[in-house]
Specification:
The chain is mainly β and 175 residues long. 9% of the residues lie in helices and 42% in strands.
């Protein structure tokens, strides 16, 4: 085998092995970060001192010029427990598209977010199922009435040689 054939074989093997789908929502051990935090049940209504339903706007694409050309965006949903001492329970993380239809639910069972912990979920740049008016609905509860979770979405995109990023904040839907 000559050098050229050997080099082509190596390049072909690298290409084949690099085609494995990368999932940004899986940690270094191959486990989904939400699955690691799942619990069998959340607080009873008697123990629940805080509950909220949060709306988080997401943009999986935006228009960037007068010709209505779209730029695809990667989006990260970030749910942060800002308490030093109390857990935050998350019972729903649902992703809706621009027309209001459910795209997917991200958790099957409630998760317990320990004090000062954060969970993130990434909508990849190539996933344009949400559209420009996508959103998340996140349901939360806690045994502490003083808990103040921070929920945001960060969108990142690029066009040509320019990159940009912006964030949105969650809004409470409870009265």
């Amino acid at each position: 085998m000559n050098k050229y054939s050997f080099l082509m074989s190596i390049c072909f093997m690298i290409l084949c092995f690099s085609c494995e789908k990368f999932d940004p929502n899986v940690d270094n051990t191959g486990e989904d970060e939400f699955k690691a935090l799942e619990v069998d049940k959340i607080l009873s209504k008697a123990d629940e001192k805080y509950s909220d339903i949060m709306y988080v706007p997401i943009y999986s694409d935006i228009y960037f010029d007068h010709q209505n050309q779209k730029v695809l965006l990667a989006a990260t949903l970030s749910i942060r427990n800002t308490s030093y001492s109390d857990s935050l329970y998350i019972s729903k993380i649902d992703y809706f598209e621009t027309g209001g239809d459910l795209v997917r639910s991200y958790i099957d069972r409630p998760i317990n977010l320990p004090p000062m912990a954060t969970v993130n979920y990434v909508i990849e740049k190539d996933d344009d199922t949400g559209g420009p008016g996508a959103n998340f609905i996140v349901e939360l509860s806690s045994a502490s009435k003083d808990i103040k979770p921070l929920i945001q979405a960060v969108m990142v995109g690029e066009t040509g040689n320019k990159g940009f990023a912006f964030a949105t904040d969650a809004y409470s839907l409870k009265k």
